[in-house]
Amino acid sequence: MVRRLVVAAASVTLLAACSSTGSPGDGVASGAPVRGGAVVFATDVEPTCLDPAAPSQIATQILQRNVYDSLIYQDAKGAFHPWLASSWDVSADGTTYTFHLRDGVTFHDGTKFDATAAKATFDHFADPATKAPLAGSLPFGSATATDPSTLVVRLKSPFAPFLQLVSFSVLGIQSPAALAKGQAALCAGGPGAAVGTGPFTTAAYTKGQSLTFARYDAYNWPPESSAHQGAAYLDKVEVRFLPENAIRVGAVSSGQAQLAANVPPVTAAVFEAGGGVRVLSAAAAGTPFTAYLNTKRAPFDDVKVRQAFQRGIDIDNIVKSVYAGRFPRAWSPLTPSTPYSYDSTLENSWPQDLTLANRLLDEAGWNQKDAQGYRTKDGRRLSATWVQNSSVMREQRDVVAQAVADNAKKLGFEVTVQGLDAGTFSARAKAGNYDITDQSNQRADPDMLYNVWSSKFVATKGGANYANIDDPQVDQWLSQGTTALQQQDRPAAYKPLQKWVIDSAAAVPIYVPQYLLGVSNAVQGVQFTVSGYPDSFYTVWRTK
């Protein structure tokens, strides 16, 4: 028995949740769209690799959504709709997906999209050599092109997040000819290397400076009920890599650019007050920015020390101060906009409590102090090292870490923050040579918790489980969540897991990322994905 899914597509994603006027929908086009023209998008992070399957950087997913389409599309409410697949069947046991593909689609290199091409993309994603971060949790069995218009994907076991993963840009369909050029070429991502079926082609790439997209005039296959049909409105999009906040924001204020990524919250109001621009925002789905405590070595191998650290920090004021009230404080290892499983009962359940924190440290034996005021035990100072991957630093996360360190000093807890290059950070993480590190993960499914908490992915094995949790109950909840094919059954797994993380203080959720996008008033049609970052430029147009 199979379930046949043929669903009317919703319009291409989300609302711009907040803007200069505060009214929802300010990012949605008003008036008749204008065809032609170009925009400059000033962004702060240049991807280290432009293959959407390989890296975990949000920057790659944002940019390459313009180049690569997916088989299906997920709307702002989490529902799935046809895209390059016109329909799909799911076997009764949830292990076999049969995609019926759209006809008349061509890659940028002129070759025809078919089931063989879709199979090549799945094989590339699942290939260990690709090192796709999200492939580790996928029980991929095989992809078979049974005929030119039919792709059959078999899983080794039921996997509830499968359709969401298929809709995500990490499984954007790539040209087999481009894939054949190898991983180095895919990462380089220049013209002829990044080849998809998306609304824009890669026209030029100068590393460290800019990436240029040109309209793909043949494009006529957006999700079925998208905002418009046919080719994109814009002729060209130039992406400029401007890591300095002041330069990036200034480029839009001066008219040198029309969009600015990641506007600093503390300058957003000033930016808007200058006139001619607005700030649109969307909340991230997935896991919030979180400090993970290494439970496999002192001092955080002691649950009381972890709990003291968690409850002794004034997270509310730190987040409010650094982000000028534009980013909400986090309470759970999932963000509130993550579909299906967020546990709202955790909100306000673990506020700062200095009395409790000091008592827990006393009970843990850290009841003496040295000349500098730090707690000691058996002649050792209560100290921890917080390591950060500087190569993916954003949103002043180094400032947040230092603010936490300053806060911890009031407890008699010495925290040293170290920014490391990517290679050094990876080596330290794998060696377990750290006490605290941080990350956030953005995707609209609670399965993001799998990569962060499964024993398969402890940091000392090269994974992103930085708390190094190896707990059978945690693994059971994660397995239950990934195999619950009915969405209403998933909270039974993920809500207990969220509570366990907070109760055991294996992590300290700090804030929910908000994507703040500065937009010139001359630009309309900006939209966000369900995961909470800008969608492709397909719907964007200029008024002048």
Automatic annotation (TrEMBL):
Keywords: Signal, Transport
Signal peptide (UniProt feature, chain positions): 1-22
Domain Solute-binding protein family residue range list: 80-454
InterPro entries to which the protein is assigned, alphabetical: Peptide/Ni-bd, SBP_5, SBP_5_dom
PROSITE patterns linked: PROKAR_LIPOPROTEIN
Pfam families: SBP_bac_5
Family from the record: Belongs to the bacterial solute-binding protein 5 family.
Protein's UniProt name: ABC transporter substrate-binding protein
Biological source species: Dactylosporangium cerinum
Lineage: Bacteria, Bacillati, Actinomycetota, Actinomycetes, Micromonosporales
